[in-house]
Specification:
The chain is mainly alpha-helical and 88 residues long. It has two helices and two strands, in the order ααββ. The protein starts with a helix and ends with a strand. Residues 1-23 form the signal peptide. Keywords: Signal.
Amino acid sequence: MGLSTAAIIVIVIVACLAAVSLAAAMWKQVHPTDHSAHRYNYPRDQELYMRSVRLKNLGGLRQESRTKEPPPRDLESAVYTEDGSSRF
């Protein structure tokens, strides 16, 4: 009684995934990439553009929060009456 065809396929797929993961880990150890030092060195004009976009979005959110309906009431701090209903 040998293994079924489906079991052999699953074993081969798991072994291939393990081999690829091991190869990727070994490659990362042998050939490290040091992009972290230059990761956030953007040109000045791009930094200014992104800052303007963030400030514009922040202003839009601030305006939207002022024009909406009042925030929902805190139900946990509500006063409960004897019949089980709550009132604010």
